């Protein structure tokens, strides 16, 4: 595992075409190595319905609940959008915490499974679930056009785009999600006006510089001026095993970062292409739970 460069200022020379930014990473320890199977083995989920081929795509309960807790803690119990909801691992967690959830998935079976799985949390839960089957881009673009006129927004939007075969690459390209043609940038662009807080689940092999690139792009499409706000990445690990990462951007990142102890120093990664897993593993080896890195990237057109 490559070591992270030491002090700020030791990276490679940055070209004029590149932009600099800071990314904070925190490590959250999962309770055990089988965290990835928690939704399948948890008592309440003994009757869970899911597509067998997607069994590894269900958000583990511990991770889903961590995301939900962050939303409730910093944004309150409001209305959220769960995009690409699958069979409802995150949707169920949000509903169980009392939030009102709008959700969408392109697969009709997933939509029905989500309703069934959410109902395991008791009577009345489905009254706060508004789920539709359909193409994300068409449905969300239509909703954004209508809500923009009304001034309505979600407290937060949670994205769990399909990772696809790109996950098997050494580094994950955010422009090749799903079947290889879905771009995380386009996904955020459609929903940018619908919220001021955004949560994106992503593979552990995403480059840390691409996290800042995504945050900078979101900042631009929302029409904001000045520098983009620092994104926060939460990496979920069991021992030395990295499960996945979650990117927080916008107001929710600002609010949570205010409660995160600052890193001892900023690491300069401007000349190093490290993934989130590599960064987290290096932090774990140094017994550090919080890290901050300086990265460089080319702005998204």
Mind explaining what this structure looks like?
This protein has one domain: 3-Layer(aba) Sandwich (Rossmann fold). Helices cover 31% and strands 22% of the residues. The chain is built from nine helices and ten strands. A ten-stranded mixed beta sheet has the order 4-3-2-5-6-8-7-1-10-9. β7 and β8 form a beta hairpin. The two termini are 33 Å apart. The N terminus is likely disordered.
Instruction: Tally the beta strands.
Output: 10
What letter string, H or E per element, gives the SSE order? EHHEHEHEHEHEHEEHEHE
Strand content: 15-25%
Mean pLDDT score: 88
Query: Can you tell me the CATH architecture?
Result: 3-Layer(aba) Sandwich
How many structural domains?
A: 1
**Could you give a short account of the major beta sheet?**
10 strands, mixed
Strand order of the largest sheet: 4-3-2-5-6-8-7-1-10-9
Q: CA-to-CA gap between the ends?
A: 33 Å
Q: Radius of gyration from the CA trace?
A: 19 Å
* Low-confidence runs: 1-16
Q: Assign the CATH topology.
A: Rossmann fold
What percent of residues adopt helix (DSSP H or I)?
Answer: 25-40%
Write a short abstract of this structure.
The protein has helices at residues 38-41, 61-75, 89-96, 108-119, 136-150, 184-191, 208-221, 251-257, 276-285; strands spanning 19-29, 79-83, 100-105, 129-133, 156-159, 197-202, 232-238, 241-250, 266-268, 290-297. It is an alpha/beta fold.
């Amino acid at each position: 595992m490559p070591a992270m460069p030491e002090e700020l200022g030791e990276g490679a020379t940055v070209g004029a075409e590149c932009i600099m930014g800071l990314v904070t990473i925190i490590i959250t320890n999962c309770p055990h190595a089988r965290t990835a199977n928690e939704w399948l083995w948890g008592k309440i989920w003994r009757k869970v319905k899911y597509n067998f081929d997607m069994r590894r795509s269900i958000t583990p309960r511990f991770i889903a609940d961590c995301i939900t807790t962050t939303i409730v803690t910093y944004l309150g119990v409001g209305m959220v959008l769960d995009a690409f909801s699958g069979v409802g691992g995150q949707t169920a967690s949000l509903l169980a915490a009392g939030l009102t959830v709008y959700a969408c998935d392109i697969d009709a079976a997933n939509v029905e499974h989500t309703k069934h799985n959410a109902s395991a949390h008791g009577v009345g839960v489905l009254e706060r679930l508004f789920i539709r089957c359909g193409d994300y881009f068409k449905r969300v673009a239509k909703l954004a056009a209508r809500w923009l006129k009304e001034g309505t927004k979600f407290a937060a939007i949670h994205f769990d785009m399909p990772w696809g075969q790109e996950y098997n690459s050494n580094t994950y390209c955010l422009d090749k999600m799903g079947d290889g043609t879905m771009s995380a940038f386009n996904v955020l662009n459609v929903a940018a006006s619908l919220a001021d807080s955004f949560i994106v689940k992503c593979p552990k092999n995403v480059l840390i510089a691409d996290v800042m690139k995504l945050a900078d792009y979101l900042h631009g499409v929302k029409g904001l001026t000045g520098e983009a706000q620092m994104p926060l990445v939460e990496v979920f690990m069991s021992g030395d095993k990295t499960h996945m990462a979650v990117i927080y951007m916008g107001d929710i990142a600002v609010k949570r970062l205010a409660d995160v102890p600052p890193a001892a120093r900023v690491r300069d990664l401007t000349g190093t292409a490290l993934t989130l897993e590599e960064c987290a593993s290096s932090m774990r080896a140094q017994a550090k739970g919080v890290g901050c890195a300086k990265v460089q990237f080319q702005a998204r057109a």
